[in-house]
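Q: Got a minute? One more chain.
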Amino acid sequence: MALDRIAVVGAGAWGAALANAAARAGREVALIARAPAAVAAMRASRESPRLPGVRLDERIAVTGDMGELFGADAVLLVVPAQALRSAASTLAPAIRPGTPVIACAKGIERGTRKFMTEVIAESAPAAVPAILSGPSFAADVARGLPTAVTLAARERKTAEALARALGSPTFRPYHTTDLRGVEIGGAAKNVLAIGAGIVAGRGLGASAAAALTTRGFAELMRFGKAFGARSETLTGLSGLGDLILTCSSPQSRNFSLGVAIGKGEAPAAAAHGALAEGAFTAAVLIDMAIEQQVDMPVAAAVAAVLDGTLSVDAAIEALLTRPLKGE
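A: Always. Here it is, folded:
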């Protein structure tokens, strides 16, 4: 499978970073932005406005032309999880049948409870859905700092071909056919990262942070297994690896949201204009957990704080006073 021409839809920080990664891998890359003003600005500055100070590789063509999709061998769909259905529907007429479309968002669609590859399958039925996730910050990937991620597609040969197409000495995709495991790891860890941020913002200490991350990972494992994910995926880069990264760094928008909430800011204002995917995923994650009878007290506490039904102090007390039990 020759995957020489890559289209990246979405020119935010993560889209620009992945475009740079694909260019470093030797691919011909089109970075597609919707707004004409954004296209003109990026062509002039060779930077994404969402990633100032990091230049776009000179081999990347910045465009607003969706027609570029028809000639693409693979498409990276780099839009927020809750906007993915609309974006996939828009690009569907422009892609050739059998073209891999890789979701690069970490979330679950609210209302439908669909995972990202399910949304692609419904919205762009001629596409081959895939998912990319793992412990990665846009600035690191864009600058060419060493990063490893997981890339999943239903067919092994497709996953391998996509990993080869995007892989380089500084960007290493591990391939798998476990779509669900990769999707669950990315979605659930965002919710747990908000919890870790609340712990940091409240000044509860490193011991509490370690406890929350560890017990949160146990919840992620239980949820993943209930939905058919493989244990090796959940303990890999897109599960445990991503959880460790986002539960420990202010570069994570989910962690930073939690820090602001922990310091007393209202959840609705605490993101300060940044997109924290976990804030949209928390409620649907808990609804799905309840439906499958999966116990997720940490994630449930985060969801309750976000929707205003529980204060931070009440959430902490509820977690600390749960009945003692075996690990």
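A: The beta strands are 5-9, 28-32, 60-63, 74-77, 100-103, 128-133, 147-153, 171-176.
Q: Perfect, thanks.
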